[in-house]
Amino acid sequence: MDSPKKIIFITGLIVLLVILIVTIILIKKSKKKEMKRKINNLDIMKNDILSLPLLNEIEKVASLTKGEQLEEKINNYRNIYENLKNDSFKKIEDMIVELDFLINENSKEFYYKYSLIELELYKNRYLINHIIEELKELTSYEDKYRGMVVKLKNKYRIINREYENNKDLYGTLVDTIDMQFENIEKRFQDFEIVINENLYNEVVLVVRSLDNMIEHIGAVVLELPDILVLLNDLIPSRLKELEVLRNSMLEEGFTLNFMNLDYNFSEIEKIENDVIDKSKVLNIDNSLIELKTILEFLDSLFKDIDKEKIYKKDFDNASFSFDERLRKLKETLRDIYKQLDDIKVMYGLNDEDLKDLETISLQYNDLVKEYKSLIRKVKKQEFSYGKINVYLNELSSNLKLLEDNLDLTLKNLGSMQDDEERARDQLEEVQELLKTCKRQIQSVKIPVVANNYFVELSEANEAILEIIKELAKKPIVIKTLNTRVDTARDLVFKLYNTTKSIIKNAYMSENLIVYANRYRSTSSEVMKCLNKAEIMFYKGNYEGSVKLVLDLLDKEEPGFKNKFTKELG
């Protein structure tokens, strides 16, 4: 390297080194300056805290207050002040001095100890300010609590005036209530004693006690008359009316077992006794709500009984009609069997041709047995008329099917022309039954209709179209026509049963879910199960929903499923 270049390079290095050294020196000076500033801030903060008028406030309160409890508090505050002054702040001063020596030694340790000092100063300032606030409160606590007691006295006088004006409404509990008012009066006297003797701690307790006692006696004066009216008049009179009505209903042949009246009466009596016992000590918590709930429940029982009367009237009418239809069906079957031999010869029929007639006879006998069984249940008062009507409606539907099947069978015993006419008549009937199925589905409010319904509806429509096509042919093949008619009839009846099943399962699902909701809050598993059943219901899986809720209720009420299944027959 040439000598001039070498000189320039060396000079540059020297200049760079000098700049670096100067920079380091400046940075160190800046850090030291910042540290000194922080130490100065700590001194200012310490002096500000020491200048807080804690001792002056202590002595001021000490000169104004009397009483052992207040003196104890004042002495405690003095001790805290002395400890802060002679212990905590001296330690802080020593730490600040030590901080001066760390400026040139260790910056990390400096900032660590600075944080400790700052934290200690914040704690001392908070403690002193808190004590000053308490001292201020001590100087004004008498005015504060006297003001509170004045408001409580005004409230008390209003309640007492209301009670005295309506004293006859409280019956045998007047002495107990008077005693409670006397206790409140004594508590007001206790307040004067503790406030005059400067018993600071007791003042707070007495005022709080007064507030609770007046709040309680106010609730008693307001609610107890209604409670006594419900206990002594309204509920007993409703129970008496209900008992008279029940006896009258039983004499008329009604069953009210499903209402569990004896059990409900027993539970009501327990609640009433509990309310009476609590009222004797003026404990009326939730009593008014419980008694109003009982009254509403009793009103609902009267409504249920009124419904049962309507259901019985419906049953009497439906039963009379059912008896007439059974009688006519029996006479028709008897007339047919009287002429059966002649019919066999006349139309060349064999036993296979008369198989449908034999089936109808067997189904008729089964239906008669089911109906007699239902009548026995009515006489034994095993079910409400509401449920009995449901069962009778099912039997009526089965009877209708029998009547229709008999009509079809009779037409099959006629000539070709009769068969054609039968086919036309059956066509109208299945069309009408199909319309009935549609109307029934449309008339009920269910979330979803299952897909199998629409499949069966499509099949039934196609089968009816086949009958129409067959009737349009010339000549008509009776055997084929009969097959078409039978197929359409079966499909429509299948649709009818499916419709009935969907409506029935939807009804049972909805009602079982409503019934099971009483257990919803017992556990998360029950809630999940009910939510799942509701989802299945809204998706149209009513049968699955019924099974799920029945299984749940069988766990909550062992034997429920068997009882429910048995009641459904």
Strand content: under 5%
Number of domains: 3
Instruction: Please work out how many helical segments DSSP would assign.
Output: 17
Major sheet attributes:
none
Oligomer kind: single chain
- Point out poorly predicted stretches: none
Q: If you average the pLDDT, what whole number results?
A: 78
* Estimated structural class: mainly alpha
Q: SSE order, as H and E?
A: HHHHHHHHHHHHHHHHH
DSSP helix fraction: over 70%
Please report the total strand number as a whole number.
0
Radius of gyration: 48 Å
Q: Based on CA inertia axes, which overall geometry fits?
A: elongated
Alpha-carbon distance between the termini? 119 Å
What does this structure look like?
With 569 residues, this protein is an all-alpha fold. The protein has 17 helices and no strands. It folds into 3 domains: 3-158, no CATH class; 166-285, no CATH class; 415-569, no CATH class. It starts with a helix and ends with a helix.
Salient structural properties:
single chain, 569 residues, mainly alpha, 17 helices, 86% helix, elongated
